[in-house]
Amino acid sequence: MELVIVKTYEVKAVEQRSATVQNQLMVLANHLIANEFLASYNPNSPYKLESHEIIEAELDMLSNLYEGRVMIIGPNYKVILDTYNISEGRTMISEEVVKCFRGENITNYDGEHGYIEMTTPIVSTTDADNTVQGVMLTSISDQTITSTMRSLNRNAMAFEIITIVMVVTFSFIVSGMLTGPFERITKAIAELKAGYSNDPISVKSYTETVHISDAFNQLQSRMKTVDDSRKEFVSNVSHELKTPLTSMKVLADSLIAQPDAPAELYREFMEDIASEIDRENSIITDLLALTKMDMSKQELNITSVNIGDLAEIILKRLRPIARKKDIELTLEEKREVIADVDEVKMSLIMTNLVENAIKYNKEHGSVTVTLDSDFQNFIFTVGDSGCGIPEESLPFIFDRFYRVDKSHSREIGGTGLGLAITRSAVLLHRGTIGVVSEEGTGSTFTVTIPLNYTGA
User: Fold this and answer.
1) How far out from the chain centre does Cα 174 lie?
2) How many whole angstroms separate alpha carbon 291 and alpha carbon 283?
3) Are 320 and 358 in contact (CB under 8 A)?
4) Could you tell me which residues are beta bridge partners of residue 439?
């Protein structure tokens, strides 16, 4: 930056100094013509005209003022006058002088040696063709320009250093102000990671830190929810698997304590043990199915399936169970639906929803299955006339092992995993599942799945 400033000043200063000196030289050139200096001047004569002495004085003054040298060259390229009294009478032929006799003004700046050289034509104003009668070859010192440049260079360097120091200082201050809140966020995250604190992060210095804090707090809340869900799931799994084992242990101990028990009692207890084993196996099977669906890279066997035909098969399979409670099963197919689905998992979705609608229904009730579609999705609805679901339980019915009525669920053999498995299968198809229920009236589950599977 300082080099640009100094160089710009140097160019402008040389131009200005050259123009000033050139104007004075043009005035002197007019004096030379007016006094016929070139024709009448004799440097060796002891007697000089008064006008010649005045011109010599002006040239000496100009030479001293600009610490330079002026030579007047006649038309025969002879040096008529030299303010240094060195080259008088000598022939001066140079490119600059020759060009000046042709009418060209030449200015050269030699910064290395410290001078400005210029030529000024001495032109007769009385001639119609403005003939160049002589040339003034002038060299002036650039000492003043050089001194000013050194001073300017020092000032520019000092200004640059001060500017750099100020910028660096300001940068440190601003960076501290900017990074301080982020460091506090980092420290708070480190404390959370180390387990020293579970408190939410609150750094409200800037809009960005507020957004980061809120996002991290939401993530922390989500992670806590997942962790709590995992702990609850492990606890529920342990409880659910332990209950059949406890029952089998009690039954087995009872038989051991009665070595002479009748065969009928043995048979009854063994049937109960077999039932508990079946229950244990059912829980393990559902857990394995749920775990497979939870895998991020779960693959579906997608084929084109007639959903109406699949629903007919499932209802036909479940009608014997419905007849035991005198429940009427109805399929309302509003239009034919052909969709890209995994037939096995789609069967699982439909079976779980219809079977639940039967199990948790009233005697002499009804279950209505409705199938419809639009240009993007098909909608599978299962409505029942059962006891309904309390409003406070609706947000949790898809959680694993959650039961609205635990005692009634035990009676009908539920594991509490059916709806969780159903929801996972629906999500694998990029679909949604929802429920509308009113206690004492019944429930309606609605599944919406794209007609064309798009994958991950």
Assistant:
1) 22
2) 12
3) no
4) none
How many whole angstroms separate alpha carbon 50 and alpha carbon 260?
164
* Cα gap 321→365, rounded to integer Å: 13
Between 334 and 202, the higher pLDDT residue: 334
Distance between CA 417 and CA 398 in Å, rounded? 8
The burial of 356, by beta-carbon neighbours within 10 Å (0-12 exposed, 13-18 middle, 19 or more buried), is given as buried
Give the 3-state secondary structure percentages of the chain, helix then strand then coil, rounded to 5. 55, 20, 25
Exposed / middle / buried, residue 47 (Cβ in 10 Å: 0-12, 13-18, 19+): exposed
CB neighbourhood size of 50 (10 A): 8
Contact 198, 216 (CB under 8 A): no
Question: Does residue 321 carry a pLDDT above 80?
Answer: yes
Q: Which residue has the tokens 């898809």?
A: 398
Bridge partner residues of 377 (DSSP): 450
Count Cβ atoms below 10 Å from residue 444 Cβ, excluding itself: 17
| Secondary structure (DSSP) of 290-348 | HHHHHSTT----EEEEEHHHHHHHHHHHHHHHHHHTT-EEEEEESS--EEEEEHHHHHH
pLDDT at res. 145? 74
> Of 23, 119, 134, 22, which Cα lies nearest the Cα of 81?
134
**All structural domains of the chain:** 2-141 (3.30.450.20), 207-294 (1.10.287.130), 302-450 (3.30.565.10)
- Among residues 78, 68, 70, the alpha carbon closest in space to that of 38 is found at 78
Q: How many C-beta atoms surround the C-beta of residue 83 within 10 A?
A: 19
Report the C-alpha dihedral over residues 98, 99, 100, 104, rounded to 10 degrees.
170
Structural tokens at position 9 = 């000043």
At 174 the three-state DSSP class reads: helix
Answer for the pair 449, 380: CB distance below 8 angstroms, yes or no.
yes
Q: Which tokens go with 126?
A: 């009385």
The answer, yes or no, to whether residue 408 has pLDDT greater than 60, is no
Percentage of residues of the chain with pLDDT beyond 70: 79
199 DSSP 8-state letter: P
Reply yes or no on whether the pLDDT at 204 is more than 70: no
Token pair 């399929």: residue = 331
Q: CA separation (Å) from 132 to 25, 75, 101, 273?
A: 15, 8, 6, 134
The label of the residue with tokens 């009690």 reads 250
Between CA 285 and CA 240 the distance in angstroms is 13
> pLDDT averaged over the chain?
79
